[in-house]
């Protein structure tokens, strides 16, 4: 083997990445425990972390990952000092160690395996910790460490941004240490690094040997069925040969036989001698083959029994094999939940909150594909619990609560096909009155509807797109998109989400998910001469109705079922199929009531064929997201049938058939929005101006708060984007002055600043800003999303 070949180095790097991920997860879990563990248990835990850092260092050296090796060496030295009890780790020291693991993770997953100046900063900070010279007095800089971005949701709305993570303190920047080149891999690292593909690593999973053994037994048992099928094939060929001979002999006597079969029939134009010979041939053929036909009938009967037995055996084996394959795809929730403790710790540190996290049921197994799709919803729900749910320690104490808030995440298996996730916090709860007011303000509800709505229904409004009760938009929250995406992703998985909250006591989210995505029960329906599958879990009722019972209420076709007034639409029209016909005539209509969470609608179809087990097939990467379709299945006849996405169907029904009318008229478009940008830095002004103009906005600039307020009094602007730290009048003062001016009081204001502390954000809220963007995590897409959210 060529140890310098690209293929070998690539394989070596992939092996290293798999090993490194395990070491990093163990190190992260160990650090989180070390912060809270009893002193008596610390020595054993420190020893474990020390050994993990040492092992990761050795693995990095083998593949010439010099930056990782040096960072691990520095961490190892810190824990060696801890073992000697020469130092005690402070909160700031833990921040440095956690940020070191973040950087190592980035290096492990990067193509080059090389970092930037932050590596040398961290090494020096770790050396100071080792020598007892590190100080917590200077707050660490904020640097976001985003989660991998998932595929776009059906509504083409942006995914919620992952939470920023606190990082290491900012020591001076020494020159980078020289990188050793002692390993075999060091001779030719670039080729492997350039050819690295994360896909290969991401598609690698570990499978228990016991599960593979069970699969092997199933496959071995199928050999007997295979041999039986070969025997049946041999019998069929023998029958085919006999029938071929019989057909050949029959053709010789067929004319005479048909002539004799007629009343008074005779063999025309033949001498009696020839007729006698033909008759004898016919009788001989019939007599000879009668026994063979009896044997053939007996063989057919035996073959039918054998085929039936083979079919039953094959059915049992295929079902067992499918069940075992489902088990292979099942992975423990711990794969998803392992990231939660660190995320909660980092968010709590960033927001100066005290949080206790409890996780139960991490061993429960679920389809790996569902785990992957639940990553973004879980991140957003946990982040919301810390950001919106739990109060600051002083506020909790003032309300008679413990300073430390509690978030609990519990996974249970309700039955063989479903799991339940319960995420609860003991924070301030959902302010129902505020939710209703926001819904009315944004035209989601009328004031009358809001007044009549009970608390349970009002709490579900938080899942409505663009509705947020956060008083300010930040890089973490406030856009009103996150909860809508959470609900949509869970619905697309065939699950559902519910919320229950009590003001002052906390909030509970309850998520129900299927265990697997491989198969489910589905209803096969027909519409416009086409067939479709609808998940049985989303079908509330199937019934037949008289067309005369369909009434028009507020320009919507509706029907009353069990005392409930439901919108009724044609499935064919909703899917915009050619040949779709309106409801007409006196024939009774077949109706399915479909539901997603609390939303229900009746769909008219041409007919219901049956209910059956459905094996889900993907549509391929070219059709990864098709509206109204979640996949396909193959029927017993070989026909390919689309599986419909019920969540999409309800939205398409609103859009395509007018099943529900918009409650508010769309704002008229009177040309590009006019935005005032205020910043004392010409570089920042120019950057913001170029970004906004490229997005189609008209832009004017001001050099400080005084200049901006003067322009606001002279011209009509749609929005203000302002820096905070400016001479003469800063951004907070400018915001307060605008809110105090009767004519300008409703102007949307976005503050873009380097001041990222909780106190600064709160001051921005108090001043009246609508959004607060921190420059250290500045992203022009986020800024444009915020502006679009505020002014369109």
Structure description:
α1 packs antiparallel against α2, α1 runs antiparallel to α4 and α3 runs parallel beside α5. The strands form six sheets. The chain has a six-stranded mixed beta sheet. It has a five-stranded mixed beta sheet with strand order 2-4-5-7-6, with helices on one face. The protein is built from 25 helices and 23 strands. It has 792 residues and is of the alpha/beta class.
Main sheet summary: 6 strands, mixed
Poorly predicted regions are: 138-202, 660-669
Helix content: 40-55%
Write out the strand line-up for the largest beta sheet, numbering strands in chain order.
Answer: 10-14-15-13-12-11
Rg for CA atoms: 36 Å
Beginning-to-end CA distance, first to last residue: 61 Å
Structural class: alpha/beta
Question: Mean pLDDT, nearest integer?
Answer: 77
If helices are DSSP runs of H or I spanning 4 or more residues, what is the number of helices?
Answer: 25
What would you call the shape?
A: globular
How many extended strands?
Answer: 23
Beta-strand percentage range:
15-25%
SSE diagram, text form:
Elements: H1 6-36, H2 42-62, H3 66-83, H4 91-109, H5 117-130, H6 189-195, H7 198-202, H8 209-261, H9 272-329, E1 330-332, H10 334-337, H11 340-350, E2 355-360, E3 365-367, H12 368-373, H13 375-389, H14 393-398, E4 405-415, E5 418-425, H15 432-441, H16 447-452, H17 455-459, H18 482-492, E6 496-502, E7 506-514, E8 519-527, E9 530-535, E10 539-545, E11 551-553, E12 556-561, E13 564-570, H19 571-574, E14 589-596, E15 599-605, E16 607-615, E17 629-634, E18 640-644, H20 646-657, E19 674-678, H21 682-694, E20 698-702, H22 705-714, E21 719-722, H23 731-740, E22 749-753, H24 758-767, E23 771-774, H25 780-791
Parallel strand pairs: 2-4, 13-15, 19-20, 19-21, 21-22, 22-23
Antiparallel strand pairs: 1-3, 4-5, 5-7, 6-7, 8-9, 8-16, 10-14, 11-12, 12-13, 14-15, 17-18
